[in-house]
Amino acid sequence: MQSELTSNTDRTKHRLTPAVGMLLVVLLIAMIFRVHRISDMSFWFDESFCLKMAEFPISDLWVHAKEDPHPPLFYFILKYWIMLFGSSTLATRLASFIPGILSIIGIYLVVKEAYRDPQTGNCSSSVNSAAVVAAALVALSPLHILWSYQVRMYAAGTALAAFSSWFLLKVLRREPSRKRDWYFFTMTAIALVYTHNFGLFVVTAQYLFAAGYLLLYHRAASLSQAGSRLMPLLISAAGTLLAWLPWLPSFLHQRELVVEGFWTKPFSWETAGATLFDMFGFDQAINMTPVIGLIAGQIMVLILLLLAFGRRPGDYFLALIAGFPFVAGILVSIFSRNIFNDRYFMFNQIFLFAALAVLISRISLKPAQFCLYGICIAGTGFLAYEQWLNREADFKLPAIQGAMASIEERRKPGELLLVCDPAIYVSVIAHARERGDIFTFHPGEDYPFTHGAAAMREDEYLRSQEIAQRRDPWIWAFDADSYRWRVPVPPGYRLVGENSFPGFRAKYAVRLYSRATEVTAKPKSN
């Protein structure tokens, strides 16, 4: 293989280059996949949890966020986003849709910056091709499509990983460097570690690369010159660390929560293979086969090793930023609780796509190069299309949104709606037009954090004694039959109606109970 990444420089001064034109096409396709019926699917637990967290006052939000294993920045952003644009399904999901699109633009900029000709500042045609293909792979990735229309922090974290890397490459690769790029890099790095804890791995890899680049690639003539080169990096690293230190006690508390009660299975090569299988989107088309995931992981390692053999700064950067979080995730999962999860690797997966595109761009035989580009894009596009079909099937399921519509047609003001678990409650109220007399059953012992307890207020619970004291003539119960979570209705009530509402993640049931002394003239819930 022969590199063309520093030759055939494109010196055009026109703003709309062919590469930019192709990027616009990629963005259009990405928008179609992400915006398709974005408002039609019910909020599920993770989304509803974020929406519920965003309802807390600013002074309380930081405290509640400590009881959840994620940093708080996304909750603050979502709170102000809702204040500006409202709490509709479309408005709230745009908080992930927009960062998802920015991630595609970000990886395009990263590839161009990593391999820009330092003499002319321009990019070769091979660089432009690799940048567009990397953007296309992110645009069509089922994992990135999924989290670009769900109200979670993953799309935002991916965008921050891309743009922080772009700013870092700009400040390292351009002479003279500009202070504002150091500021932008530092701010986006801080935002990343406050968006998701896996951002710590990405930011660590960024600083490791920057230190190695300044010390090894640009060797200083004297100690003072080396110090002057490293000083901006040291200031940036110190600023990021100092900004994150206030969250450190909360991070350590969250770590204990995860170690004691996280939902993941113990780490094994089988679970690792299953994670990689889902991460690359194979789950959209075929049944779970961990071996396929492990094979994909081995190919991933081979891609990064082959790229690193190129011995260019951009090669080292992509290999480090793509590989380090995987290695760190494996080590933590082996020696502590398993945190090897597909969506956590979104932040560095985009750099793996970039590494693949760059590696293919170095094939000197153009027909083979274009053939490999086509296979990668067509294969990812096929999985995106399968995901589209799966989403269409999910849209037809009533889920919690349909269950709440059914309840609100029949439930009168003042009638009790009791939800089986906080994990279901947060979604119930997200789809409720009126929240009066909607509570979660409290069994007497605190729910684990994995059930969304961090988003709950004490006045949103009802205990058995409190339910009995209310003596409601009717009790609506919202159960999750798939998890065997069912409201324990107190003695003296009998079931008079029920209906089932399947969803894409669980099967729900609405049950109506009446006191034995009441005349059951109430229409059944079905």
From TrEMBL:
The keyword Transmembrane helix applies. It is a multi-pass membrane protein. GO terms for molecular function: pentosyltransferase activity. One of its GO terms (biological process) is lipopolysaccharide biosynthetic process. One of its GO terms (cellular component) is plasma membrane. It is found in: Cell membrane. Residues 70-230 form the Glycosyltransferase RgtA/B/C/D-like domain. Pfam families: PMT_2. The keyword Transferase applies. The chain crosses the membrane at residues 16-35, 97-115, 127-147, 153-172, 184-210, 291-310, 316-335, 344-361, 367-385. Coiled coil: none annotated. This is DUF2723 domain-containing protein. It comes from Gimesia benthica. The lineage of its organism: Bacteria, Pseudomonadati, Planctomycetota, Planctomycetia, Planctomycetales.
